[in-house]
Design goal:
Layout: H1 3-10, H2 13-24, H3 30-47, H4 56-68, H5 73-92, H6 119-133, H7 142-156, H8 160-164, E1 171-172, E2 177-181, E3 187-191, H9 194-207, H10 225-236, H11 247-260, H12 265-272, H13 277-280, H14 282-298
Antiparallel strand pairs: 1-2, 2-3
Length: 302
């Protein structure tokens, strides 16, 4: 996209009105606004057609172009989700008579079962920071912070962005819960296990953290999502876990282990902050796959 194209989209009054609507009325996150802006700019730069003159064929050509370039289906659906929301907004505000994007049939997502850690692997990962600390000459509060981060991930099933945004005041030791602001700034309260609460208290005492951001870096500023990725990557190298995992895998493991031990699907949906039950249902497929493996390996006539 040229600089001239980008300037043209930024000056587009319809698009800017849409972004103001997302930010103010929908309370969309900065990440959502960035993704939707990119989607509108990418389509506008390629089609070079005013929004009012776009037809279903314009969007169909754009879809075929993305597929020919072998773009991931998740990326394609995100682009068209932004375009559909944009045109839905224009129709609702009676600026356009109809939504041409709705006439398209998008490629379905490939269903991939999430990778989860076993309970022994979780225990090994949670023990790694303090084991490594024994070999350090100068102890610090940082290994306690790292254990607290991983314990809270696994204990409450938070998203990475939710965890980094936590403040000290969000964790209630008396009710054993944490207040979380999820997607769309929707608030929910999640229970926290005693092991996580204990190590959070130890970390806060050692690091002298009593207000403001819960998890801080060496500069005593709020820890970033990228730093948490690097922390997890470093500790993984000191375990026997054979796969590379992201912080999100601890959320997957939380959901799967809850279902494995009898939690109902609606409760897990509420804990994860999923708007739709269908999003949570993928974890039932994981538990069924694990049951099949257990059956195949243990039953004499499997």
């Amino acid at each position: 996209m040229t600089k001239a194209d980008a300037r043209a989209v930024k000056k587009d009054s319809l698009a800017e009105e849409f972004f103001r609507y997302l930010a103010i009325e929908r309370n969309a996150s900065a990440r959502t606004l960035k993704a939707y802006r990119h989607a509108l700019e990418a389509f506008s730069a390629e089609s070079k057609t005013p929004w009012k003159r776009c037809t279903a064929d314009h969007f169909r050509d754009y879809l075929f172009g993305l597929m020919k370039r072998a773009q991931a289906r998740t990326y394609v659906r995100l682009q068209f989700s932004a375009l559909r929301t944009f045109y839905g907004f224009l129709v609702a505000r009676k600026k356009f008579p109809r939504d041409p994007v709705r006439e398209l049939q998008l490629p379905k997502l490939e269903k991939k079962l999430p990778l989860v850690l076993t309970r022994p692997q979780i225990e090994e990962l949670l023990a790694a920071p303090l084991k490594m600390e024994k070999n350090r000459a100068a102890p610090s509060w940082m290994p306690l912070r790292d254990v607290a981060i991983m314990e809270l991930f696994y204990s409450s099933g938070l998203r990475l962005a939710e965890l980094t945004a936590l403040d000290v005041a969000d964790v209630d030791l008396y009710t054993e819960s944490v207040r979380v602001f999820g997607k769309g700034r929707k608030e929910r309260v999640c229970p926290v296990g005693l092991p996580a609460l204990e190590v959070i208290s130890r970390y806060r005492s050692a690091a002298d953290v009593h207000k403001g951001p819960l998890f801080i870096n060496k500069s005593r500023r709020r820890i970033s999502a990228r730093s948490i990725w690097l922390i997890l990557k470093r500790y993984l190298r000191h375990t026997s876990i054979p796969i590379s995992i992201s912080p999100h895998k601890l959320r997957h493991s939380f959901a799967t282990h809850m279902l494995d031990r009898g939690a109902d699907l609606r409760s897990v949906q509420a804990l994860l902050g999923h708007a739709s039950l269908s999003t949570t249902q993928i974890y039932t497929h994981v538990t069924v796959e694990r049951l099949k493996k257990a059956y195949s390996s243990a039953h004499p006539r499997a």
